[in-house]
Design brief:
Two copies of one chain form a homodimer. By secondary structure, chain A is an all-alpha fold. Chain A folds into two domains: about 15-70, Arc Repressor Mutant, subunit A (Orthogonal Bundle), CATH 1.10.10.60; about 80-210, Orthogonal Bundle (Tetracycline Repressor, domain 2). Chain A has helices spanning about 15-40, 45-50, 55-60, 65-80, 85, 95-110, 115-125, 130-155, 165-180, 180-190, 195-210. The structure holds a DNA duplex. Chains A, B: This is TetR/AcrR family transcriptional regulator.
DNA sequence: GTCTATAAGTCGATAGAC
DNA sequence: GTCTATCGACTTATAGAC
């Protein structure tokens, strides 16, 4: 219960509908623009145009460009981790878990390429703004996945491999389908990747991962 | 022989020793700075400081920032292709060829991380400045590697896989060791990657690739 | 909360002395 | 060829009317 339920509209925190709507709009637009040009390469004007608001309004909701950048990154990092802990879990089989994980990561690259690219941009620039996320959240996350891989290995369900570098490889392959999309499309001679390209990519990655799994009967044997 | 071996110093093209020295210095410095911040995020001042020259001198050798950016990219693209055609060649075995290729790519990530990152930065930003390279040079390069993979497959030396996406995966994994180095180091709890980390990475990637190779006797069986 | 107009500062590029 | 000093365009951020 709020301490003073008087007739005065609760003003303790600014949570009006227009505010929520606008900040959401701005953050989405900012993700796109920051993804393409990074922090220093982005102009507040571009974000203003992308969100159909006057530049001053952006500054009203986010005091500085850096504040907006931090907020944009923040909303992205949770999504980036996604369902990893759901799929890479010891109560699943490696086949099921790895397939689910790879498909989820490919889905993220397809549906939120800008989020992936913004994270990549930040890492390329030194990762100063995600340092805490990397050494706290992400490191613990990797430790937990590591335990799952080791459990699989000890149960004889998966070949022995360096679990951390294995995860690095999975990240690298799946994120490439967002980050260097333009390179892939150019090589394939297309304006952009299609659903089939993502499917073939998923298939190819699964094939590489399968080297660590024990030989299994064909999935849909007759 | 020059057409006019007179006493006048040949001035047809500007090729003096100081010029060659300075341009080389500037290009090296520019690679580092552009790699971290991209074209729009880089200040000519930073390049000037990184190359220990007054800003005006940079403009003397490269008229505009964009000219310098193009020149920096140009010197990089050849190196990026590297020895690929030497290793991924039909007169090698897949084992030997893939190992050599992966080791060469990892070596590049280790020795020239800035080159890799600058290319990544450019692709993230849309790849406008490497468009011709992508659709001409790189596309032909991929077609040739594709033929090698197919030859290996038809000779029964390698499992059937999509050759282009397979190459995408190899690029992604090896370049990650340059591009997201900062993420890897943070997860591993180190200030930077060591030689052993690159070795473990190479090993892990080889392990994943081996799923496509026929079961072979242990490399150094007794 | 919204938006125009502008202040304050930064950056690419060049003039011009040496 | 080298380098200082500076111009002019652009960009972040804010003041202040509505």
């Amino acid at each position: 219960m709020p301490p003073v339920p008087s007739t005065i509209p609760t003003r303790r925190k600014r949570t009006g509908a227009p505010r929520q709507n606008n900040t959401r709009h701005i953050l989405n637009a900012a993700e796109k623009v920051f993804a393409a040009h990074g922090l220093s390469g982005t102009r507040m004007n571009d974000i203003a145009e992308a969100s159909n608001l006057p530049k001053a309004n952006i500054h009203y909701y986010f005091r500085t460009k850096e504040d907006l950048y931090r907020a944009t990154l923040k909303q992205l990092l949770d999504d980036w981790l996604g369902d990893a802990s759901k799929w890479l879990s010891a109560d699943r089989s490696p086949q099921e878990g790895l397939r689910g994980f790879i498909e989820a990561k490919m889905e993220f690259s397809r549906k939120r390429p800008e989020a992936s690219r913004l994270f990549a941009h930040e890492l390329l620039s030194g990762g100063r703004y995600v340092h805490d996320f990397l050494v706290d959240t992400l490191r613990k996350h990797v430790e937990q996945r590591t335990r799952v891989f080791k459990a699989w290995h000890e149960a004889g369900l998966m070949a022995k491999t360096d679990p951390v570098h294995f995860l690095f490889c999975l990240w690298a392959m799946t994120q490439a389908y967002a980050d260097v999309q333009v390179q892939m499309a150019a090589v394939l001679g297309k304006p952009h990747l299609t659903g089939r390209d993502y499917a073939t990519g998923t298939q190819t990655i699964m094939q590489m991962v399968s080297s660590l799994l024990p030989p299994s009967p064909p999935e849909t044997a007759e």
